[in-house]
Structures are given as structure tokens and as C-alpha cells.
Amino acid sequence: LLTGVALLVWTFRSLGSNLTDTVVTRKQHTLVVHGPYRWIRHPLYSAAALVIPAVSLIAANWFFFALGITLLCILIVRTRTEEANLVARFGDSYQKYMERTGRFVPRILIVVVCAVALASVGPKARAQRADDVPVFDVDAAWPKPLPNNWAVGPVSGIAADARDHIWIIHRGEAVAL
């Protein structure tokens, strides 16, 4: 949430008088390539993508989340029209700007995410080699007689200590003499 709000503030400060509520570019507008626009072409929409899910989680409201997802889908569709208008207004300078910046996330982030995804797809390390599997031998003298001719009744727990001693925890009324 805080990241999204910070990005919103940074975006509004960077836009200055270029901020409009429509996709129409006015004659006095200039191409903004500083602030968050240095890395992202639509940081306002990216901030919305961060803020909307955060607020819906805080509010614990699925309707608000669904409404937010719908709004984000509309904004994604709107970017095509907006970018077409910006290409018409600024020409080659906007085309070059599009080539070096990401639409909603920085291009370097896309590269990092892809690299991490590819690295995680590789073969998984085995937890234990086949020749390191512990082997347990059956004790022919088992079960050993208990002291004082005790009999083992219902057990409430089994534990092993640091020296590999096995402890059987009996229910108090279950141990018979």
C-alpha cells in the first residue's frame, strides 16, 4: 500500500500540468520522461495495481477486489488508445521512449523475473543421496522384558533424546505390575 501511494505521489509530482482525466493530449503538454516515467510509461496505472489489492485486503472485501480488477482491466485497454494518441502527438520521440521503457513495470524487472523463473524450473536437488539412506536392523531380542515384570499398556507418546534413547510415555493408569 505504501509503495503504491508513494508511486502515486511521485507520479503526480512528475506530471505537473500534464495531468489530464482523459486520454486526450493537449497542445501545451510535453513528453514527461523523468521521475517514475524514466522507467515506466504508465506509473499511475502501476500504482493503482499496487493500491487496489492492498486496500481490498485491508478492507477484507471481495467485491472491492473484483471491482479493482475490473478497473485495472479497463486501464490496460485504455493504454492502447492513450499510447496511440501520444505517438500521434510526439512521434519518433515517443516511439523511442516506448522502446526503452516498460509499460507497467520497468524492463529490468521483467528480465529479473524471467531469470528467476527460469532458474527455478531446473532440476531439483535431492534431499538425500541414495547411499546415505539410514539403515535400521531388526533387534532379534526385541521385545526386551521390562523391569519388575511391567507390561506396556496404552502409550500416550514416544520420544527420542539427543543420545538416541527412545522414551515411551505411558498413561499413568496403564502400567501394570
Q: Write down the CATH class of the largest domain.
A: Mainly Alpha
Instruction: Provide the β-strand percentage band.
Output: 5-15%
What's the domain count?
A: 2
Order of strands in the sheet with the most strands?
Answer: 1-2
Note the run of SSEs as H and E.
HHHHHEE
What does this structure look like?
The chain is mostly helical and 177 residues long. It has two domains: 2-114, Four Helix Bundle (Hemerythrin (Met), subunit A), CATH 1.20.120; 143-177, no CATH class. The protein is built from five helices and two strands. The protein has helices at 2-15, 43-59, 62-90, 92-100, 107-121; strands at 155-160, 166-170. The protein has a two-stranded antiparallel ribbon. α1 (2-15) packs antiparallel against α2 (43-59) and α2 (43-59) runs antiparallel to α3. The longest helix has 29 residues, at 62-90. The relative contact order is 0.09. The mean pLDDT is 79.
What does this entry show, briefly?
47% of the residues lie in helices and 6% in strands. With 177 residues, the protein is mainly alpha-helical. A two-stranded antiparallel sheet has the order 1-2.
